[in-house]
Design a protein that fits this description.
about 180 residues; alpha+beta; 2 domains; 4-stranded antiparallel sheet; 7 helices; about 30% helix
Length: about 180
């Protein structure tokens, strides 16, 4: 599989759980099997023969869901469905922040030497990430300031801010060799 559509290496924290989601007409129970890409071995974006993936693609476009692989496979009334992690209303308490940030944000933080826990501590509320999946801490931006996960400049700009870029060598999140 290409780097463009990486497959989750770990099971979803929600695998085997029944969660609630809302299509706009009240909560619906969904039994989560796992990440779509772990169940089928490839991204939903290349699943041309799957009616469930086609239906999700249409719904994702209309609902302006993020175009990423943070997509679960689950069953609603016994029928297979794809569900974006952001559509689950009960996920906040059980999902680690690493699964609320998209792949591009996690990679940007890793490359900067900043742990997800540090980012959440600085910009989240307690153990809860309240910002966008792109790493932007401003919840007013969610879904409005960029189209694709790699279009956002918030995270790199914040990582270059003096309170991150000017860290001493002993501070967490400092790139190896001290401040650059």
């Amino acid at each position: 599989m290409s780097d463009q559509h990486p497959i989750h290496t770990e099971p979803s924290p929600l695998a085997g759980e029944t969660v609630l989601m809302n299509f706009g007409n009240g909560p619906i129970e969904v039994h989560i099997e796992d990440w779509w890409d772990r169940v089928y071995g490839h991204s939903w974006m290349v699943a041309d023969a799957s009616l469930a993936a086609r239906g999700y693609a249409i719904r994702a476009g209309l609902a302006r869901l993020p175009l990423d692989n943070e997509v679960l496979f689950g069953h609603i009334a016994g029928l297979g469905n794809l569900i974006h992690i952001s559509e689950i209303t009960t996920a906040e308490a059980v999902l680690p922040v690493s699964r609320k940030l998209n792949w591009a944000a996690r990679e940007t933080l890793r490359a900067a030497g900043v742990s997800i826990a540090e980012w959440r501590t600085r910009y989240g509320i307690g153990d809860t990430w309240t910002g966008d999946a792109c790493g932007c801490p401003d919840d007013r931006c969610i879904g409005f300031h960029h189209e694709r996960p790699d279009d956002c400049g918030c995270l790199p700009a914040l990582l270059n801010a003096p309170h991150w870029a000017g860290k001493s060598e002993n501070e967490p999140g400092t790139p190896k060799g001290g401040a650059q």
